[in-house]
Hints:
By secondary structure, the protein is mainly α. The protein contains four helices and two strands, in the order ααβαβα. The protein has helices at residues 2-6, 8-12, 35-49, 64-72; strands at 19-21, 55-57. Helix 3 (35-49) links the parallel strand 1 and strand 2. The longest helix is centred in the middle third of the chain and has 15 residues, at 35-49. 3% of the residues are buried.
Amino acid sequence: MERLSILSPLGELEAPGTWYIGAVAVRPDYQGRGMGRRFLQLAETQARENAFSEMSLKVFENNRRAIALYKAMGFQESARRSLEHPAL
């Protein structure tokens, strides 16, 4: 149960009514080739086709490359929560 409470900040960041992008991942040897941008463009197309006017995602604050991409694609930070990784 304690592990679930550690993850509660993730639930607090939910943005109801948005097309939620669960994950964007590009293998290191393919990074820098525009693949992440293409994934986001595909998600945007899918969101529009499903009548969503907004998209949302979550990103760790130390993932600076991803944050730069998201900002370049027009995403804006709407909320921030602290999350500690549980000890294994």
